[in-house]
Write a structure and sequence with these properties.
Length: 367
């Protein structure tokens, strides 16, 4: 039985009539930027997450970079984050001229460790950027306490956490703002790139709206900031608006698959990412630590079960980011995790049979 890691096409098949109607409507109107789908998507996602403002942009990376800009993070500032993340988190901090300060992660839930954040705060610290890794919120309340006490801000990398919440409080409400991604393979994926900023702060929202269109002020061709071109295309907004109607059902299906995996893999040699108390996770990825990881992956491949390694190499081992740490051994938990993690397929169009088969192959590998 083949178990594919993603099945993007299945999303189209499920929503073909609505997607075809919405995209041809956009094409036929000629309103290709910032039209009704764009504005509707901003309002719907902000409302779903209980946030005051939604600002659609061209990617998750842009969402984070614009947020940093809007929060006034720049040269001379430090931003505390981790090296166990997608490169964009650290890349945007460098792009705005600030310095990423990399701290180690918790080996059980893979999130930034609040105590390590506390120990890394310096007079130059301007922000903490936790990553809600694999669909689960970081230790947000602890981080918020630390930030408030020290007069710094939390900016959430919520690229993988659309719909995730802690005791009913959704991603986007734990700091000054959050960046979300609608890249193809994210839980809510466009037919290309897309992203959104959520914030409850009026000033940040106004600056983000301005920065995404060249820093334009209230009047056309008058500029208040140095900005970017980062509009979300209306076609993408139309596609995302249609798929958004299935988001909660799709996230619920991911939770069902996770429960199947957990059932079969209980008492096996693998350790599944721990879910923190009070956290609901949207299982953007289903990730575990596996002894003999590379052999396991090869075994699964032979059985036609796809798997991925997020992330194979810690960020401080890559040339552009090497100067941010002092080489191997500087972030031991992160480095160990990169050698042990494996993600199993968990998209909403996976059948129970496929999930059970995949999990059983993992058990079989260990005998
Ligand atoms: C996907 C992702 C991003 C960047 O989003 P894009 O839409 O691909 O630009 C940033 N951070 C994390 C943790 C991500 O997974």
């Amino acid at each position: 039985m083949r178990v594919p890691f993603y099945d993007i096409r299945a999303q189209y098949d499920e929503l073909k009539a609505q997607l075809d109607a919405a995209t041809s409507e956009v094409l036929s109107t000629g309103a290709y930027v910032m039209g009704k789908y764009h504005n509707g998507l901003e309002a719907s996602i902000a409302q779903w997450h209980g946030c005051k403002h939604g600002i659609a942009v061209n990617s998750g990376t842009d969402a984070l970079r614009i947020l940093l800009d809007a929060a006034g993070v720049g040269p001379g500032d430090e931003v505390i984050t981790t090296a166990f993340t997608f490169v964009a988190t650290v890349e945007v901090i460098v792009q705005v001229g600030a310095t990423p300060v990399l701290v180690d992660i918790d080996p059980g839930h893979y999130q930034i460790v609040p105590e390590r954040v506390e120990a890394s705060i310096s007079p130059r610290t301007k922000a903490i950027m936790p990553i809600h890794l694999f669909g689960q919120l970081a230790e947000v309340n602890r981080l918020r306490q630390i930030a408030e006490r020290d007069g710094i801000v939390v900016l959430e990398d919520a690229a993988q956490a659309l719909g995730s919440h802690h005791e009913g409080v959704y991603a986007g409400n734990f700091g000054l703002g959050a960046g979300f991604s609608f890249y193809v393979t994210k839980n809510l994926g466009a037919a290309g790139d897309g992203g959104m900023i959520l914030t409850n702060d009026d000033g940040i929202a106004a600056r983000c709206r301005s920065i995404r269109v060249h820093g334009m002020g209230r009047q056309r061709y008058y500029y208040d900031h140095v900005g970017y071109t980062s509009r979300l295309a209306e076609l993408q907004a139309a596609i995302l608006s249609v798929k958004l109607t299935r988001q909660e059902a799709w996230n619920a299906r991911r939770n069902e698959i996770a429960a199947l995996y957990q059932g079969v893999l209980e008492d096996s040699p693998v350790t599944i990412q721990r879910v923190l108390p009070g956290n609901n996770t949207t299982w953007h990825q289903f990730t575990l630590r596996a002894p003999k990881r590379d052999e396991l992956q090869a075994f699964l491949k032979e059985r036609e079960v796809d798997s991925m390694i997020y992330y194979p190499v810690p960020l401080h081992f890559h040339e552009p980011y090497r100067h941010l740490a002092s080489g191997p051994g500087s972030l031991p938990e992160t480095e160990k995790l990169c050698e042990e993690v494996l993600s199993l397929p968990i998209h909403p169009h996976l059948s129970d049979e496929q999930a059970l088969f995949a999990a059983q192959q993992v058990r079989e590998f260990y005998g």
